[in-house]
Amino acid sequence: MSTFSAIGEEREIDRDEYTPGVEPQPTWCPGCGDFSVLKALKQALPEVGRTPEETLLCTGIGCSGKLNSYLDTYGFHTIHGRSLPVARAAKLANPDLEVIAAGGDGDGYGIGGNHFIHTARENHDMTYIVFNNEIFGLTKGQTSPTSPKGHKSKTQPHGSAKEPIKPLSMSLNAGASYVARTAAVNPNQAKEIIAEAIEHDGFAHVDFLTQCPTWNKDARQYVPYIDVNDSDDYEFDMTDRVEAQEMMRTTEEALYEGEVLTGRFYVDEDRPSYGEEKRSIGEMPEEPLAERYWDDDYEWERSHDMFLDKHA
Amino acid sequence: MTDDELIWRISGGSGDGIASTSQNFAKALMRSGLNVFTHRHYPSRIRGGHTYTEVRASADPVNSRGDGYHFLLALGDSFARNPSEGAVYGNEEIKPLSENLDELREGGVIIYDEGLLDASEIPNFEERAEENDWHVFPLDLRGLARDMGREVMRNTAGVGATCAITGMELDHVEDLMRDAMPEKILDPNLEILETAYEQVQEEYDVDAPDVSVPTGEHDETQLLMSGSDAISYGAIDEGCRFISGYPMTPWTEVFTIMTKNLPKLGGISEQVEDEIAAAALAVGASHAGVKAMSGSSGGGFALMSEPLGLAEMTETPVVLVEAMRAGPSTGMPTKPEQSDLEHVLYTSQGDSQRVVLAPGTVEEAYEQSRLAFRLAYGYQIPTILLYDQKLGGEMTNVPKSHFDRAANPDLGKTLSEDALSEQPHSDDGKFHRFQPEVDDGVSPRSIPGQKGGRFLATGNEHDPTGHISESPDNRVAQIDRRAEKLAAIRDDLDTVDTGSYAGPEDAEYGILTFGSQQGTVEEAVGRLNDAGVSVKSYGVSDMLPFPTEQVRAFIESVDEVLVVEMTASGQFRGLVQKNLGQYGEKLSSLLKYNGNPFEPAEIVDGFETAIVEGDGDAPGHQTTFVPAAGD
């Protein structure tokens, strides 16, 4: 038996394998968009052939962080805003793992914004799903980084004076090599985009519009939605950085005008992932580091043999 | 005081190569058969500002900077600021010669670069030299270096002159230059070294000063090593192959050494966006099955509080190093202090659980770096190695054989897939990673990618599978199990005994200290006993879990105890009293927090004035005495 025999296993996968026995029914509010993320993952993972035990799902804190409780894989429910640094180190330690990170808009674009920028910049081969409901849900409806200007809440009683974060543009400029937006109200597109994001060799960022009927908008407010890749109204080349940027800007502004634009906005298949970059300069081993600790034949180096003579 | 020793100080500007020149000189002395110890003082400045390094050399073991110095080599400061009168820095050009001049011992030697320094700027310089019987050698080191190579080579000229006056052969210095320098600069440097040596011998009476290099002999190969080197090699020998960090003085030294060496070992180093990420990456790498570390200094370590707590709650093994410098806030970035003790012990929310070790010497830094990994992985608990700018940067000789030990890549209680299949699982196949009833509280773990090992790691309280739980019974069981690990670690540490003891066992008085002050305290204890004061010392390394019984026995065995530490508020004394719950009337403190480590004489004087004579502060020192309760 090899050390990590769940990795690369070829077999039929039943989507029920991802449903935990202890809490099969999520406790999200009725009508919550988060259900759609869970469903899209349960569909996409078997489709791309990733088993629960070769997948590591890292989440932050918030309603979105509960994803780990409802998707049965190896999981690391970290702390607020810190799913990405945990996730990307796991990927470096064992590049054979399928690493997915997830969090909310407060988690990823607010408190964890620095990690988001740098993880995108480094182009780690992983998927990052941001549950964007334009509100803080778990703490009961405060203004979030994606809430529109003028948004009123108990923490912004006079209406927010801030422009919202532009998550797609930020992601592109930071260096993500796959940037998409989908919506809970469009489950088919969501499944396709999540599957593509998992298959993409680089940092794939999916801004997932998840309505919050309890504290913010309900599902009806995300309908109708337009897929910019299918619509005749929008012509752009998603492999062209400049055209992608313009399309993103249009999309980000349209959301606050009540128009929901979704789809793939930027895809760069050529940019090497961070792991490839590190290996190409000799800063990362070819074989997964995590496997070395199980190799009985490996001769562990000692400082005594390698580094001490220069001190003599 | 050892008579048969030399304390040589080289001073100049920050950025003028003082550190590398002194390191080579120390190594040359070590190769000649002497024991050496260096002390580094530098400003928090980009370029310029007075900096010096002292090299102490003796045939006998040396484990502190010593008192004062015998020999001053004052070079120029190429980056000195000379603003108008009254500006904060004043005229800096003369500082390499003028600063701390009073600490030069009677009969001492001064070489100064008259190409850059004008001694007449120092008030009463000649009178002071005469009073103290100093032997002054004004040499145009800059001119000599410029004529034969480049001005920056004046350090080499200074070393050549030093050798001529102290009677040291040039062989070892030349060998080191050949090892370190590329050919292009080697030849002019060798020429400058020899010319300076010969000129001084010809033009001066080099036998006049009674200052010379002692002679000694080593019976085995010695290495010149700093605390930062030792910590790094300890990590490597424990199979650590992942480090993540963000630069911060003085922790950067360990980060740099590891980063340089890890690629040669197929390891990974990550410089990341901030210290929150740095610690979180180490946690993520460890979770995925790699031995990992991170670290920082005070301000950066503050950012690590969150991931540290996460590692505690998820029982992810990780080693963090904390290189203390003077605080609070940005404090004095390049100056040593021990005042992050409480920060490191208590930061992060909840009834947190960690191990904190504070090595006292370079040798202990290696041993306890290894110990930190063994405890972290053996007991699935974050372990912090607490040291400071002093221990990190000071260099001393250590026998090479000290490091000749087997590598230990062991991950601790981590299960293979075969072993996992024998473990309890829930009906849905989830592995019980956090079983409440296990030996020493350590529940075996799995690694992502293993079949049959699926579980959830979470910062929330959780049940055996990792699923979030707020059940009161589960809460108590999990908290109690995690607490059991610390008790087991205490038992484990009792078999290792990281403490360091000096002085006669039946002594009348005691000195307690922790971390990097240990060597200085032990030297002071030797001198006090020579002077007829019956005193012993105990250098404590285990900060958490605390060696309560050992410290109690030490305090019980003496009449009075002086606690020596580099803090302003007596944090270590507070820790002792917190753990022991008594002895307030028996413990007094000697504190120093001016940015410089203790000299042995300060502890000797402080002890005699405060304890033996019982009347307050020692005169003439920037130390503070705090009496015992009720005194």
TrEMBL record, chain A:
Gene3D superfamilies in UniProt: 3.40.50.970
Keyword Oxidoreductase: yes
GO molecular function: oxidoreductase activity, acting on the aldehyde or oxo group of donors, iron-sulfur protein as acceptor; thiamine pyrophosphate binding
UniProt entry keywords in alphabetical sequence: Oxidoreductase
Record-annotated Thiamine pyrophosphate enzyme TPP-binding domain positions: 61-208
GO biological process: cellular respiration; organic acid metabolic process; sulfur compound biosynthetic process
InterPro entries: 2-oxoacid:Fd_oxidoreductase, OFOB, THDP-binding, TPP_enzyme_TPP-bd
Natural source organism: Halorubrum ezzemoulense DSM 17463
Residue segments, region Disordered: 140-164
TM regions (residue ranges): none
Cofactor(s) required for function per UniProt: [4Fe-4S] cluster
Name of the featured protein: 2-ketoglutarate ferredoxin oxidoreductase subunit beta
From TrEMBL, chain B:
Assembly with partners or alone: Heterotetramer of the KorA, KorB, KorC and KorD subunits.
Gene Ontology MF terms in the entry: 2-oxoglutarate synthase activity
Domain Pyruvate/ketoisovalerate oxidoreductase catalytic, chain residue ranges per copy: 15-198
EC number(s) recorded for this UniProt protein: 1.2.7.3
Domain Pyruvate flavodoxin/ferredoxin oxidoreductase pyrimidine binding stretches: 234-479
Pfam families documented for this protein: PFOR_II, POR, POR_N
Lineage: Archaea, Methanobacteriati, Methanobacteriota, Stenosarchaea group, Halobacteria
Catalytic activity, reaction form: 2 oxidized [2Fe-2S]-[ferredoxin] + 2-oxoglutarate + CoA = succinyl-CoA + 2 reduced [2Fe-2S]-[ferredoxin] + CO2 + H(+)
Biased composition (Basic and acidic residues): 424-436, 460-472
GO terms for biological process, alphabetical: organic acid metabolic process; response to oxidative stress; sulfur compound biosynthetic process
Region span, Disordered: 418-472
InterPro entries: 2-oxoacid/accept_OxRdtase_asu, PFOR_II, Pyruvate:ferred/Flavod_OxRd, Pyrv/ketoisovalerate_OxRed_cat, Pyrv_Fd/Flavodoxin_OxRdtase_N, Pyrv_flavodox_OxRed_cen, THDP-binding, Transketo_C/PFOR_II
Keywords recorded for this protein, A-Z: Oxidoreductase
Protein name: 2-oxoglutarate synthase subunit KorA
Every Pyruvate:ferredoxin oxidoreductase core domain range: 507-580
